[in-house]
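hiii so um. not sure if this is the right channel but i have a protein structure encoded as tokens and i wanna go backwards to a sequence. like what aa goes where. can anyone help
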């Protein structure tokens, strides 16, 4: 059941990536343009966020490939050859399958199918790493833009000797930058909304099933299988955590922008310029968040809800089976 759910998840996620490739290209072009136009101070902010994203995605890819390849190679080889009561020899495949036309137990058909299933697993792990990487890249760039916006707001009233024309240009620049961030976040939402939904639903099911497998192998005292399943469980949990973590980072950065715009030293400005701040404050108080199909907000609270739900389903599974 687990491999079927995982393959279905990656198939739908890859389909979404192909379907939204235009939006992804627009996002990448926007990132490239921002890097070209950025000052040295802004590039430091971009680099700090990108380092976080790179580390997170590398850890996710390492754990997923490590746990997945162990699951598809070590576990079937560990089971060895099975002889049934009818004296039929069965060599287990990484993903047990039923073939009508061919006999999968004959050589070299068994070896070919074994390698094809391992390669299919690697392809699915590439989709997992790719979707996590794209989501992290886009969201963390948006976080960098929000941090730059905070700096622009703080610098707005720092200098008391600023001319009226310069001040109005800065206000106009902040408003335009806010609109730019809103458009970029709207593009991110279009790309990631169904990826997040699939990851939340599928991740809940997989955490539950892999947890049940761990309990079964513990009862059988199969230490190697327990280690493999724990590694696989960590990789699944970490993939869910990545999307929730970057969503939480976006929430935190939006909160910082809201605080900066609300606590600005507006009394240093003229009445005319004070009115211009109303638009900035209003836009800052309506942040866009990373959501799964515009229903479920991606945050650390959501991650804890997914874990609690998975453990609840696991308890039900233990009672029923």
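sure thing!! here u go:
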């Amino acid at each position: 059941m687990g491999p079927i759910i995982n393959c279905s998840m990656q198939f739908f996620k890859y389909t979404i990536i192909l379907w939204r490739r235009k939006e992804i290209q627009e996002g990448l072009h926007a990132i490239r343009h921002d890097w070209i136009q950025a000052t040295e101070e802004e590039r430091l902010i971009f680099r700090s966020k990108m380092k976080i994203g790179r580390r997170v995605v590398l850890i996710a890819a390492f754990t997923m490939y490590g746990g997945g390849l162990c699951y598809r190679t070590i576990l079937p080889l560990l089971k060895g050859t099975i002889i049934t009561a009818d004296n039929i020899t069965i060599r287990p495949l990484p993903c047990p399958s039923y073939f009508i036309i061919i006999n999968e137990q004959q050589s070299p058909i068994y070896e070919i199918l074994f390698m094809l299933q391992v390669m299919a697993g690697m392809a699915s792990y590439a989709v997992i790493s790719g979707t996590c990487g794209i989501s992290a890249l886009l969201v963390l760039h948006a976080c960098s833009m929000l941090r730059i916006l905070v700096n622009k707001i703080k610098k707005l009233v720092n200098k008391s000797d600023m001319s009226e024309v310069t001040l109005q240009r800065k206000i106009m620049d902040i408003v335009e930058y806010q609109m730019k961030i809103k458009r970029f976040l709207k593009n991110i939402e279009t790309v990631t909304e169904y990826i997040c939904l699939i990851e939340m639903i599928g991740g809940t099911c997989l955490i539950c099933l892999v947890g049940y497998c761990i309990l079964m192998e513990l009862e059988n005292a199969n230490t190697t299988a327990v280690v493999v399943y724990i590694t696989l469980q960590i990789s699944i949990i970490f993939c869910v955590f990545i999307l929730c973590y970057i969503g939480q980072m976006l929430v935190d950065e939006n909160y910082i922008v809201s605080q900066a715009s609300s606590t600005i030293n507006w009394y240093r400005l003229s009445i005319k310029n004070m009115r211009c701040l109303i638009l900035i404050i209003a836009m800052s108080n309506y942040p866009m968040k990373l959501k799964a199909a515009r229903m479920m907000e991606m945050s650390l609270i959501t991650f804890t809800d997914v874990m609690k739900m998975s453990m609840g389903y696991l308890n039900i599974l233990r009672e029923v089976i």
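oh and The CA atoms of residues 37 and 43 lie 9 Å apart.
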